[in-house]
Write a structure and sequence with these properties.
Blueprint: H1 11-17, E1 21-25, H2 30-44, H3 54-59, H4 72-79, E2 90-95, E3 98-103, H5 116-130, E4 136-140, E5 143-147, E6 156-161, E7 172-178, E8 181-187, E9 192-195, E10 198-201, E11 216-223, H6 226-239, H7 241-250, E12 257-263, E13 269-273
Antiparallel strand pairs: 1-3, 2-3, 4-5, 5-8, 6-7, 8-11, 9-10, 11-12, 12-13
Helix pairs in contact: 2-6, 5-6
Length: about 280
């Protein structure tokens, strides 16, 4: 009821439908927390994470199973109101349990689906901690958070899927050993469609308005909280391999580790990781 664009009465849906100024209650502060973290990731990634791509996601057909690619003119038209920069197309003020939202363009709409799933994991994990639990595993749609140890008293074992299309049976690329950490994976090997021989992936570049076209197939991010891991996993799929590794190295304060799988020749997979990721491949 806070962050789902699929629920008409949710906070985000009501804000998206508003034409200009809009006030609404946000008693649990889920919207506020998601918005503020999204602004932080938007700023640090120089706009490669941009929740205002909602009209592009809808236009490309990734919300309603369309397979009608947008033309360049259509993309350019939508881009005229896509930007998460404060005070460009919107302003927002949070006061107590209220949100005061202003739009300068009624077509400006937000989609937190690339980060809210991870936030959902954090909400459940925080609830378990508040009840005194220290050993648990929370997973929502592939994003997860682990605490303590499993019933055998060892670190939790998390499988990374092989990024291959049309597998009859699930294959694991690797197994991670984690405790007190969050993990999110973003990939282009499942969410896509093909039209007239052209593959359109669900990872959209908010700067160009088009799906990304590079060799990166999946990004696994380990972070302290799952919303952060989720948001950066989405960003890194757009940024590409070299930019991702550089970002992690140059932003140690974010405490991120990444595992990158890329397409190589002869249908093989290239594997690269950040300096500290190898610790999670050991028991």
């Amino acid at each position: 009821m806070s962050l789902s664009t699929y629920v008409e009465g949710s906070v985000i849906s009501q804000i998206n439908r508003s034409e200009s100024n809009f006030n609404i209650l946000d008693k649990n502060h889920f919207y506020r927390e998601c918005y503020q973290l999204s602004q932080d990731i938007y700023s640090k990634t120089d706009g490669f994470f941009d929740p205002s791509v909602f009209p592009l996601v809808k236009g490309w057909g990734f919300m309603n199973h369309m397979d009608s690619p947008l033309s360049k003119n259509e993309v350019d038209s939508i881009l005229t109101f896509v930007s998460f920069e404060k005070e460009r197309f919107h302003q927002v003020e949070f006061k107590d349990d209220s949100i005061f939202f202003e739009k300068s363009n009624p077509n400006f709409k937000i989609d937190f689906n690339a980060i809210a799933q991870g936030q959902s994991v954090d909400v459940v994990a925080d609830y378990l901690k508040s009840k005194g639990y220290s050993n648990f595993y929370v997973e929502v749609g592939g994003e997860l958070k682990v605490s303590g140890f499993n019933r055998e008293g060892v670190k939790w074992k998390i499988g990374i899927d092989s990024p291959k299309e049309n597998l009859e049976h699930r294959e694991l690329e690797n197994i991670l050993h984690l405790t007190n950490a969050s993990i999110a994976t973003s990939g282009n090997y499942r969410k896509f469609y093909v039209k007239d021989g052209v593959k359109y992936t669900h990872s959209l570049n908010p700067k160009t308005g088009f799906p990304v076209h590079h060799s990166l197939l999946s990004v696994t991010v380990i972070a302290e909280d799952c919303a952060t891991a989720d948001g950066y996993a989405t960003s890194f799929m757009v940024m590409g391999k070299e930019a991702t590794l550089s970002f992690v190295e140059n932003h140690p304060e974010e405490k991120l580790e990444v595992y990158l799988l890329s397409a190589a020749e002869n249908d093989s997979i290239d594997r690269e990781m950040s300096v500290g990721f190898s610790q999670y491949l050991q028991e």
